[in-house]
Amino acid sequence: MVEPDRVSSVPFARARARIALALDVATLDEAVSLARRIHPYVATVKIGLELYLAEGPKSVEALLEEGFEVFLDLKLHDIPTTVERSARVIGALGARYLTVHTLGGVAMVRAAVSGALAGAAGAGHEPPVVAGVTVLTSDLVAAPETLAERVRVAIEGGCGAVVCAAPDLSTVRPIAPGLRFIVPGIRPEGSAPDDQARMTTPAKARSEGADLLVIGRPITRASDPEGVALSIVRSLMHAEP
Fold this sequence. Notes:
By secondary structure, the chain is an alpha/beta fold. It has a single domain, classed as Alpha-Beta Barrel (TIM Barrel). It is 46% helix and 15% strand. The chain contains twelve helices and eight strands. Strands 1-2-3-4-5-6-7-8 form an eight-stranded parallel β-barrel, surrounded by five helices. α9 links the parallel β6 (161-163) and β7 (180-183). α6 runs parallel beside α7 and α7 crosses α8 (144-157).
């Protein structure tokens, strides 16, 4: 399935770097098995609550050893002191991205950023990107004023990225030009929506300015995961904004 001539090309590498494979499974064995199969087409894996609660920090360590960048999606949301200490632990693990919910306010988001940077520095890792979650893609509506306020929290809190649905990019991008845009709710043409209320295709999301596309079940539950992943990479190669 891997196409060496394409894998070695710059457009292929750029497209591959745009995809974060969501490993929404309950065991590390299953996560690693899936990740290995898709590695030629995906540079980043997302570890969410299910896998992290089941396997803990070793899930991050195992996927880093497989050569992936790790997106740890825990959506931290608590009092600033607790968030700062939690983010410090996460930063020390070497995850490339971690999420904090902007509902917690500027002080909490700033605590997450501070903790993550301190944890990474103490462990000798590169500074992680803290991503502020705005409105979940399962929500039917994301009011522009709500998005604007939550993006403001992310900016003032020191985030390097925001997480938003693809339909929200037209609202978010003009007010956060310096941030990266991480977009979940991505579904290739013809895929089931599952629990995503506001979704779009990979190519459309990229053409609208998404920097990192979070894609899970359309790949991981496909009868041919490698084939689906390759088709997504191909679509992204022609979708630069």
